[in-house]
Amino acid sequence: MSSGSDNASGSLGRRLRAARETAFVGREEELAAFNAALYGGGCSVLYVHGPGGIGKSALLRRFAHEAALAGRPVSMVDGSMVGSIVDGRTAEPSAAAFEAEAGPVLRDADAVLLVDDFERIQGLEGWLRERFLPRLPMGALVVIAGRYPPDLRWRADPGWAGALEVLPLRGLRAGDARALMDSSGTPAESREPLLAFAGGHPLALLLGAAVAVKDGGVGRRWTPDQGVVATLLDHLVGELPSAAHRRALEICAHAYTTTEDLLRAVLPQDAGTLFRWLRRLPFVESNSLGLFPHGVVREVLEADLRWRDPEGYAVMHDRIHAHLADRVRTASDADVPGAVAALLHLHRDNAAPAGFHGRHDEGEFREEALREEDVGTLLRVATAAEGAASAARAAFWAERRSAAFRLYRRAETGEPVAFSAWLRLAEPDEEELTADPLVARAWAHARATTPLRAGEHVAVGRQWVLPPYRGNSPVTDLIQWRVIGNCLRSERMAWSYIEMRHPDPAWVERLRRRYGMRDISERPWPGDDAYALFAHDWRAVPVRAWLERMSRLLVAGPAGGPSAATAELAVLSRAEFAEAVRKALRQVSRPDALAASPLTRTRLIAERAGQNPATALGDLLRQAIDDLREDPRAVKFHRALSVTFLHGAPTQELAAERLGLPFTTYRRHLTAGLERVCADLWHRELYGTGAPAYRPDL
């Protein structure tokens, strides 16, 4: 037990006390609750809880100061010091040891007892509630501060309803955080980078400020050194029960939100037990999407794992990425934006929008399908956002393709703030080209670059956003997540085109470098504002390749992102493809010649990851010929192709002789076999190896 009045003699005690008082900022609500209790207008027990380093001890020191000013005797008990001494070591805390320290509060109605580090003696909580605290004289005040919230039995007991007040202690407000940095002498240019890293976490801010003062400032985006990381981990996380618990916490730090099924996908053993453990941690919060740690805890866990075990970090990232990518593909339509947000969170990097990976606010905006009665609202929003001409285009498409539209409202007020449309177009339509110059521009680009093949389509994304909500905002995030979800879930999409009005240069660069999209903008149409039009060929960089390039960004850094030299796939017409197959068959025994084939850069070979492209192409051609034996009607085609290309007949005449066929019959079989192989491989090129097998009518 220590007295609330500092008995230290000399200047050091006074200097420490003065420095702590100067560094104390904010906490007006907590101080108001304490003073209400102190002067008899509040509760008898205050229960303060929050994660390590959040400022509980500093708040208790201020409470002690306020109590001393009120003339109240103050006692303080440190949970880490409570316990009897056995063989020179502190044993488990006991009720007797606690009462020996805290006893004065039971004898004086004016006494104030402050209990710090209560998590160290959490086992005494039931005894404290049932046995110790009911013996307090009326007027005495007890403050308990620990990492964990009180047991629910406090709230379930009607007797404690007016006697207990629970104060969750959170990070400092932005203004208070800046005041804390001011008091520590942080250079002005370092304050925003430190705030971006630490948020309102006092310990993280003070450690960062100490580094900034020592080094004369920090960079635009500050990354803590390993000394700071280790200190924060000790205070925020502490010792963990096992390696599995540490891995579960690292998964929680890496993912946007963590559910039990995600944990099971990455860490199958004891996923349920580990999830229940995570949700009880004082620095882990929850919402409707799952669990997530406080921002600074996330940052230091990520930094520590990447430094300590880069290979383990990459393996964890890949497993989470695969699970979340699958979720995007299988989610219900309403859940697509949230699934995409979780996936893109893994791709965050230095270019991520401020606050993106810390944004867990739910329900600020909601997305709805367009209903007939919303069309008038669409026209009003489109007119206010982009003018009458753009509103006319919105009306045109709403009449033709109402299902393509989404409406975005403020959840609190129902105010409509934006619309988006995802126009899926299979072929040019003169009326559409005339009505919408943007769609005409998209079709012109597609036809001039790599035209559509049978069964393919283009998609054009349009949006109308009221001016106050443009730029980096939650509603534009929601629209972008919907667009990306559409791209990742579409079948047979050749090109996607995304329009951006009044483009933010940072987003233009982000779409180009981060998402691998081409800016094909031209001068604005007369009377229209500036716009940008971004295109992506999903045949050249299919979904899987796009996701892999994105995934490398976090693990490998900027050099591993979409700007790295990664060959795009060749997009061949059917005639070009068939000619390439015929040529490759003639060279099937020459790997050096196959290496130059454009087929090595097609989807066919890209899906055979891990093989040398020339070897993979040779294997694929042999397998395509061999597969013909499975169809009794095509066995004769198989024999003609096999003798000609696989068994080295020097001329077609000799091949016909070996088969015992008239030359004209052999030629007919060979031609039909080539057509069959070309058609089979073309089918795989268009639909992927997982599609149903090609079944021709012979």
TrEMBL record:
<dbReference type="InterPro" id="IPR041664">
    <property type="entry name" value="AAA_16"/>
</dbReference>
<keyword id="KW-0547">Nucleotide-binding</keyword>
<protein>
    <submittedName>
        <fullName>ATP-binding protein</fullName>
    </submittedName>
</protein>
<keyword id="KW-0067">ATP-binding</keyword>
<dbReference type="GO" id="GO:0005524">
    <property type="term" value="F:ATP binding"/>
</dbReference>
<dbReference type="Pfam" id="PF13191">
    <property type="entry name" value="AAA_16"/>
</dbReference>
<dbReference type="InterPro" id="IPR027417">
    <property type="entry name" value="P-loop_NTPase"/>
</dbReference>
<feature type="domain" description="Orc1-like AAA ATPase">
    <location>
        <begin position="24"/>
        <end position="131"/>
    </location>
</feature>
